[in-house]
Amino acid sequence: MKVTEYFKQANDQTLISFEVLPPLKGGQMQDIFNALDPLMEFKPPFIDVTYHREEFIYKKRKSGYYEKTAIRKRPGTVGICASIMHRYGVDAVPHLICGGFTKEDTENALIDLHFLNVDNVLALRGDARKFEGKFIPEEGGHEYALDLVKQVSDMNSGKYLDSNIENGAATDFCIGIAGYPEKHFEAPNLELDLAFTKAKIDAGADYIVTQMFFDNQKYFDYVKACRAAGINVPIVPGLKPITKKYQLNSIPRLFHVDMPGDLVKAVTEASTPEARTQAGVEWCIAQSQELKAAGAPCLHYYTMGDSSTIRKIAEAVY
Question: Which one of 11, 59, 65, 241 has the fewest beta carbons within 10 angstroms of its own beta carbon?
């Protein structure tokens, strides 16, 4: 079932969803099950599975020279989605990214997902590779998430890359996109960032999941700004608890978000690692309760493999 249909059937009740990472190459599906089993009692209607582009490593050859080799460290997104749907009877939402994929690769992935009865995708540009100053698309791939949304929307209309295909089978994907309450770090201002978001909605996107944030007012202001810009789709807040002191520096650096002073103070003044984790959990619980009371359509938790912490939060909120 489509994510947006779940929202409609919820009758203004706030749903819950989780996002998981594929295991590193060499891992096993049981790693995903171990992360999700403790969370399924909260009845998430859908679970997101991230996609990761290839990375480059340098292998030393016998000649002494180094060979640049591309590897994908976290493969398996499509298979993981199928396994989740089979084991739990819930919908899986695979992430689609521009980086590392040609248009043909994307089309074939969408065909696989359609054959597996996957009804939803989250269309993202993805990040630049490490040590690259900006995002560089794959040759023959998409440069922007907007183009990816258009390709999915075209397939929903039975339009394939090969113009010789007549009466192509139409898919029916519900398309999610990312939103940035503190604006995308590459956008010069929020107004232009919202214009890009509006273009993706106009191209066929159905709902928005936000980047993590730690000040709910930023989410409320973002929703208000979206509505003023003519963006009227559901906007799902993305949440991540702080559990380690170093995250006060690493998360703002990696995700370009601000940390409220009270949160920073609570974590830094905690005297033990356990107390610091508790401070972050309590902050996320308070965030969640306020967002739920305000009528957010769903609370989307970035688990990052830490299901025990997410479970504590879900127990307090749901």
Answer: 11
The average pLDDT across 139-148 equals 96
The confidence band for 50, taking pLDDT boundaries of 50, 70 and 90, is very high
CA distance 59 to 63: 11
User: What DSSP assignment string belongs to 175-190?
Assistant: EEEEE-TT--TTSSSH
Query: What's the pLDDT at 84?
Result: 98
CA angle 170, 173, 177 (to 5 degrees): 140
Whole-angstrom Cα distance, residue 34 to residue 239?
21
Placement of tokens 């969370």 in the chain: 39
> Could you report the per-residue pLDDT of 96-121, keeping only the tens digit for each?
999 989 999 999 999 999 999 999 99
* CATH code assigned to 3-240: 3.20.20.220
What tokens were used for 46? 């859908």
Q: Which helix (H) or strand (E) holds 231?
A: none
* Residue 75 near residue 29, CB atoms below 8 Å: no
**Residue 65: predicted pLDDT:** 63
Query: What are the residue boundaries of the structural domains of the chain, listed by start?
Result: 3-240
User: How many angstroms separate the CA atoms of 266 and 209, rounded?
Assistant: 27
